[in-house]
Design goal:
The protein folds into 2 domains: 240 residues, Bira Bifunctional Protein, Domain 2 (BirA Bifunctional Protein, domain 2); 101 residues, Rossmann fold. Helix content is 38%, strand content 21%. A hairpin with a 2-residue loop joins strand 9 and strand 10. The protein binds adenosine-5'-triphosphate (ATP) and magnesium ion.
Length: 429
């Protein structure tokens, strides 16, 4: 047979190897604990949804819908489908479909893979993972404060420092419209100061002019009308109350008037958590969305964090190395010993010990090599000798200081093996 080509994974879609498992586990456990402690319940929605859900739920003129979605036609029935690029749309769809809001608001959370066709680089992948929470049916700034406090607790519990909170208010759509008109009028009055980019965007997306990197336009942009000046009393009160609530809980923040989120449906509060110049988490209020997706109008807010970016911070903070190991490695040789070893391993597992049973035969020397590599504290050795005597040999693989090959060993009766092993482990501590 000719040698087969070596296959590779899809670019931007990563394997998560066992060495990273302790870090992932730490994050997932912490997140689940935090969510529970705030009364959020987990929801799992499908990875594939109808394309039109995202077009309607994210907005046609967004980066995601314009160029980042993995969309395809179902070859069997012609349906237009998309791998979810985010989860809010799916969660809201499910909440509507299952009438979840009929008896009051709901606190939901999710985690899982998301898919966006982006240029892969550090912290940006084509399959990546998010954790998110959605507070559906809550109108007040108390819910905004709650999801922000939830985030803060996650960072604290994960041992992350240096994650900064930025907040802003986008007001309501009529307020944004008034601001936009004022912006256009302002830039029109200063046509001669606009560069080509700005002229092109003047009517299509005047807000983007505010993000210009052109130094010559800096003072023009700084003096431009600000959205805050167009917010009505209600929007301002919502924002003020949120700030008070955050201050009352000593959550530091900065107001960033430039902070806008990519999606059309955001209103009032928007926020981002930033670390090392990278946004790890974004969220805010999206009161129009539930109705836009066909539900009875209900307000909502939430956030989504990027797991890979948070893990990167945990790594930088020196959180947890690969701690893979088991308690016991069972070494055996001979047919009778194999039976005894299988039996012993099962009994040790009954006692909640982590046991690796040697598979694949081989001499004792090779087996002990595997036992050492397993990180086990003890080896249980079963040869013909032991089995004939109704005994097992315990061999200490690591001393109390964690050193390999501590050299100690002892014969114990097979009938009391579980107790002997538990004793040996307990005496180590
Ligand atoms: P960015 O501006 O970095 O593209 P975004 O606004 O598209 O982010 P959101 O849709 O708000 O991101 O998603 C929330 C979080 O998910 C981000 O803050 C980030 O941590 C993470 N995230 C988004 N896209 C990716 C990606 N392609 N790879 C890894 N993480 C991502
Ligand atoms: Mg993006």
């Amino acid at each position: 047979m000719s040698k087969q080509e070596k296959l590779q994974g899809v670019r931007g879609m990563n394997d998560i190897l066992p060495a990273d498992e302790p870090l992932w586990r730490r994050l997932e456990d912490t997140v689940a604990d935090c969510m529970r402690s705030y009364g959020y319940r987990r929801i799992r929605t499908p990875i594939v949804e109808h394309t039109r859900l995202f077009v309607r739920g994210i907005g046609e003129v967004t980066d995601i819908v314009e160029k980042e979605m993995y969309s395809f036609t179902d070859a069997l029935n012609g349906e237009e489908l998309t791998l979810r690029p985010e989860s809010t749309a799916g969660v809201v769809r499910a909440a509507i479909e299952h009438n979840m809001l009929y008896d009051g608001p709901k606190r939901l959370w999710y985690t899982g893979p998301m898919f966006r066709h982006e240029k892969p680089q550090k912290g940006r992948y084509r399959q990546f993972h998010q954790v998110g929470a959605e507070a559906l049916g809550f109108a007040g700034p108390d819910a905004d404060a709650e999801v922000i406090l939830l985030c803060q607790r996650m960072w604290d519990d994960l041992g992350l420092t240096g994650v900064r909170l930025e907040i802003n208010s986008l007001g309501q759509s009529d307020e944004r419209r008034a601001h936009r008109e004022a912006l256009i009028a302002y830039f029109e009055a200063n046509q001669q100061l606009l560069d080509e980019d700005a002229k092109r965007r003047l009517y299509s997306n005047p807000l983007r002019i505010l993000d210009t990197k052109n130094k010559a336009m800096q003072s023009l942009v700084e003096a431009a009308p600000k959205l805050t000046e167009f917010l009505g009393a209600e929007s301002l009160a919502h924002f003020e109350r949120l700030k008070q609530l955050l201050l009352s809980q000593n959550v530091p923040f900065t107001v960033n008037p430039r902070l806008v989120r990519g999606l059309d449906y955001y209103n009032l509060t928007v926020f981002e958590w930033v670390a090392d110049g990278l946004t790890i988490c974004g969220g805010g209020r999206y009161d129009p969305l539930i109705e836009m997706l066909g539900g009875r109008a209900a307000p909502a807010c939430g956030f989504a964090l990027g797991i890979e970016r948070v893990l990167e911070l945990m790594r930088a903070a020196g959180e947890l190395q690969d701690a893979s190991s088991c308690d016991v490695y069972v070494v055996h040789q001979g047919d009778a010993a194999q039976l005894a070893a299988l039996q012993a391993a099962e009994r040790l597992r009954d006692a909640a010990l982590d046991v690796v049973l040697h598979c694949g035969g081989g001499g004792f020397k090779a087996q002990f090599k595997r036992a050492d590599a397993s990180g086990a504290f003890l080896a249980v050795v079963l040869g013909d000798d032991e089995v004939a005597a109704g005994e097992a040999t315990l061999k200490w693989l690591r001393g109390a200081d964690g050193e390999v090959g501590a050299g100690r060993q002892a014969r114990v009766p097979l009938s009391g093996l579980v107790e002997s092993v538990i004793d040996a482990i307990a005496n180590d501590e």
